[in-house]
Amino acid sequence: MDGNGRWATERGLPRSEGHIAGAKVFRKIVDYSHDIGIEVVTFYAFSTENWKRPPSEVAALMKLFKEYLTEADETKYDRRERGYILRIIGDTGRIPKELQKLVDRTQLDATQENTTTINIALNYGGRQEILHSVKLIAERVQKGELKPSKITEDDISAGLYTAGMPDPDLIIRPSGELRLSNFLTWQSAYSELYFANVLWPDFTTDDLDAAIMDYAKRDRRFGGV
Ligand code: IPE
Ligand code: MG
């Protein structure tokens, strides 16, 4: 979800207003993703690098996360009934304690098939995630549970926050930037990429449809022919 700051600046508003507008769009796209039957959708909300922003902007973002997580906690059973569950991925040990508690409260086990999983990447970094997995593997090696020569790609995947979830088929980046910025670094090896020239607060369900239609035309060979 990129371009909130530019959207606000273009309107002579503080950047925090862009994040507020972006959070509204996020809610819309969450619901639409569920309506059209997307199995797993991951939103990049806050990266491990975003702490470099001015404290007032970080605080504005944390306030929005608190509002969303409070709402998610209050509606969690109803949401699960309707077939979607929320997962927070990232290094949540380093977010404010009050948010950590809310994150824990919002996490429910899925109870039915065909559930849409909504991942929110919060204090997420792809390299940091790989490092986290490597440390888990190193501990198993140290305990003598695993031989270095027997480490597999699946062992690395199993230690990621997305363990058990499929790799993304499609990654959409709005705002016109042409990079992944540490998003799903391991998982994106064979993902199709789509760059939308629209700032996130202007992103609509039509933009998501356009990305999916474009994806549908791609020929995925995974290194084969
Ligand atoms: C939102 O967009 C990304 C978040 C960290 C929530 P930006 O804040 O990066 O907006 P731009 O790129 O400055 O326009
Ligand atoms: Mg940005």
Primary descriptors:
225 residues; alpha/beta; Undecaprenyl pyrophosphate synthetase; 3-stranded parallel beta sheet; two-stranded parallel sheet; globular; binds 3-methylbut-3-enyl trihydrogen diphosphate; binds magnesium ion
Would you mind describing this structure in some detail?
This protein is α/β, with parallel strands linked by helices and 225 residues long. It has eight helices and five strands, in the order ααβααβαβααββα. The protein has a single domain, classed as 3-Layer(aba) Sandwich (Undecaprenyl pyrophosphate synthetase), CATH 3.40.1180.10. 44% of the residues lie in helices and 14% in strands. Strands 1-3-2 form a three-stranded parallel β-sheet. A two-stranded parallel sheet has the order 4-5. The longest helix is centred in the first third of the chain and has 21 residues, at 15-35. The two termini are 34 Å apart. Bound molecules: 3-methylbut-3-enyl trihydrogen diphosphate (IPE) and magnesium ion. 3-methylbut-3-enyl trihydrogen diphosphate (IPE) binds at residues 1-6, 19, 22, 45-46, 50, 61, 175.
Question: What is the element layout, followed by pairings?
Answer:
Layout (H helix, E strand, L loop, with lengths): L3 H7 L4 H21 L4 E8 L7 H20 L1 H6 L2 E6 L7 H10 L9 E9 L1 H17 L10 H6 L11 E4 L18 E4 L9 H12 L9
Parallel strand pairs: 1-3, 2-3, 4-5
